[in-house]
Amino acid sequence: MNEWSADTTLKDEALSERRDALLQGIARPQSLIFTIYGAYSRALDGWMPVGALLELLREIGVEDAAVRSALSRFKRRGVLLSESRDGLAGYALSESARRTFDTGDARVLERREPPSNDLWVLIAFSIPEKSRDLRYRLRSRLSRVGFAQVTGGLWIAPEGLEPDARLVIDSLGVIDHVDVFRGEHVASRSMPEAVGEWWDLNAIADGYQDFTLAFETLMEDYQADQIPMTPLQAFIDYTRVLTAWRPLPYRDPGLPEAHLPHNWPGIQATRTFFYFYDTLGDLAQQHVINICSARNAQS
Question: Which of 51, 54, 68, 151 matches a 20 to 30 Å C-alpha distance to 116?
Answer without folding.
Answer: 151
